[in-house]
Structure of Pantothenate synthetase:
Amino acid sequence: MARSVAELRAQVRDWRAAGLTVALVPTMGALHAGHMSLVRLALTKADRVVVSVFVNPTQFGPTEDFSAYPRQPEQDSAAIAAAGGHLVYLPTVAEMYPEGASTMVEVSGVSAGLCGDARPGHFRGVATIVTKLLLQALPDVAVFGEKDFQQLMVIRRLVRDLDIPVEVIGAPIVREADGLAMSSRNAYLSAEERPVAARIHAILTETAGALAGGRPVTEACAAATAALLDSGFRAVDYLELRDAETLTPVTELTRPARLFVAAFLGRTRLIDNIGVQP
Amino acid sequence: MARSVAELRAQVRDWRAAGLTVALVPTMGALHAGHMSLVRLALTKADRVVVSVFVNPTQFGPTEDFSAYPRQPEQDSAAIAAAGGHLVYLPTVAEMYPEGASTMVEVSGVSAGLCGDARPGHFRGVATIVTKLLLQALPDVAVFGEKDFQQLMVIRRLVRDLDIPVEVIGAPIVREADGLAMSSRNAYLSAEERPVAARIHAILTETAGALAGGRPVTEACAAATAALLDSGFRAVDYLELRDAETLTPVTELTRPARLFVAAFLGRTRLIDNIGVQP
């Protein structure tokens, strides 16, 4: 395990000296099968896999769940080892943001709308911590889940724009048997809420089919939003069709698109997304 | 000469493979003896020296001199070779900012006040391009002049905050015989303005002495501003004493400080600075 940038770099340096390639899988811990799929994908892309576990304060809003976010470092470390990960990187907040730290990475364009609007400052925090992690480890590849699809696009953008020498790899969403996208926040769900949560994926799948079949975008999205509220969701933050590459809003399906949703079930905010082909 | 990131990286890779260390000297071209001192300093710090020449559009305000800024790539390349630099890196604007580029690096704190206030967005442009150049070349050391002292502090800050693996080295200001700090913008000065420009350094030196001798900060700065205007400067953007490390304003001289000035001589904006010891 590495707790500091210096320890992380020393390990990576040793691997490099031995001619080995390195993958990084950044996580916020509370690891589940979704994360494990990222580790397994990383193992196919590089000789050594570093998994970072860091609950990043700068990507949480003042009223969000930073302090409540589940933390279970021992369990996470065991899971990473069991999945074949070679190093757990568990930095402290003081290591990542020492006194006086005052630099942020800001991505415009792909970070606008969706979670960018719903969570002001969120992607600035994500962009900054991911830049730091990538420059601390300087891996050959870094793996991120498509569950946070907009985040993946923000990271692809900043890596290209800042010339960070790393290949970014997106990994498909891993789902529970009933279709619920795996998420550390699923732990917040009550026994009553849990089956309702699975409706998100069912409704997204249905809507993607309707869109592919020619149903008008505005109509299909309105119907999906209504269906979520009918199912028991308290509020829908957004339910929108966007271009799969640029993330600009799509009003007519002519190119590959992606349907995005964020909705509140009680106090828990769940997100999901699905590809839509014209 | 390298025109693309790929060419630059190929050369640096070859040097690394041969066990050589690399220094980067970022410039905007229009090279003068001040820049050459940076190259010579870099040669003492690393085996190979890359000098980048790029007039960075994102650090110029809409009413500033981006298009008028002197460009003389052939002359610069010859000067770099003569000084012992090993590679000139001359990227195009399209190479540095391809279509869709939308990531900026933002440093707060040290970038506030002084040129940060006088030139909104300037340090964001500087921080972004320097981050890119450092990540393109991944040098062991990078050399910047103390002429742009606030810029040097912004760069030190972002390198630390983003964990860029490079040592930042500041180089002392190089001056003309009459004390005028060397600057590419000195080329804008008319024959009548040129001797007046030298008054900046004389007045800063005098003021630094008065401050060290106990003259109150507000009084000394007001007198220096008046002296500049009397000498023929059209306007003084700022003349301020700041902490030498944090760049916070100093009202009483108790720690090492730095006196900063930006003033307009006709249409030319000149900057300079000097250390002040308590």
